[in-house]
């Protein structure tokens, strides 16, 4: 890789041991992907729940922080943590998990990282703009920022996103390059979803068809522009099922006003998706009507989702736990507007700053006896199978009804 | 010496020798593994129930979220990690995770590598030459010799 004078100095340790460590990591990755040089980035977003980090990851962070060298050079924020400290006992989380979280948070703060604890920073903190190079973690954040915002980011795992924060740059490969942003797969949908779970299911199907990080699906046939929440579920599921980092919606997303703008005129439509495909995906998860827990998470809920949820919870009395997870930025409004009160009076719980699957999901299942789980998040059902859950995908309305009845109708 | 050898476009890490687990499936440490037990745990995964510890995984593509970037490092710290991962197609997360976790990696072949490498075969992964090679029985390492190539490199268990 070509390095400029500043980068050479960082690699030589002239900017301290932390910047050197970060630069060495970035060069290793950059060489693997044959990056020619670095590109400056304006923001970094670090995924670092302690279930993923473990003791080893926390010690790695602490070692960087212990150097006392000043930390990040650009605005650097965090993905959800592994708990909501105020509700940890309700989740059955052990003291050692909370202690590990506290250590990670303390190390991040010493490194100058802003603990936003959100996977919807594009709705709540500062959305990246078209052409802006960023280093974002959380696949849902990356696919939304790339596709809806027109920003430029690869999936940056925690170590790489933090390295970008520490050096102010990232290797220039993948979705930082024009050549990777053209469509590679053309898909027509004959049906436009109406609920968030259907948007997620459609995204999951597109993700499965795409099937790898380097495919860029172009989707046409939608009847109207989706909302931010609809695109959030659509993109998060696509990224989860397919490891997809960028999609184009013809006539809707900023880089695809016309077919030719993303090379779609050179591609034949190879797949058609209809309502029956979405129903089939949802049905594939519906194996047991009984449920142990209802979860709304992945991604964290916006204030409008919480508003809809509160309306559905009003006057209900739940037989099963219902968890609604949002960001620390949204939670105060949720409280202020009375949504938290309505949801919790029905027997639900509003959690803040965490995400269900990033919060020791396997241990929660074992401690709380939660196995059969209903959710409106296609991303969550795709993830939780590996954690021993039987996740089922249904509308927000059906999930609330399931919390009330103990069964998914 | 075996001539059954395949060239990748991307490579990282140290030369390792080991036994393969092969599947035309995706891979994510978060989605597919029980990392405490060291086995594939996702019911739909073709390798479900099989131990990945010290194995060379030959898989189709990297899947899912960003957690694997930390998890390979955490798995390495407990000596519960594959010794190498070989993909038809890799994503950025798996490469970043391999860089931090010191896991050898090859990716990008002109053939479907999962159809070429037999499940359970002894192979050599050599990132310096960008190659994976199926070994003759005469080349198998003596007991304990291969383990030196997959030694623990990080912190406490």
UniProtKB/TrEMBL annotation, chain A:
- Write the protein's name: Phosphomevalonate dehydratase large subunit-like domain-containing protein
What organism does the record attribute this protein to? Variovorax paradoxus
GO molecular function terms attached to this record: lyase activity
Determine the domain of life of the protein's source: Bacteria
Give the Pfam families listed for this entry. Answer: AcnX
Key words, A-Z: Iron, Lyase
Q: Which residues cross the membrane?
A: none
Domain (Phosphomevalonate dehydratase large subunit-like) spans 1-401
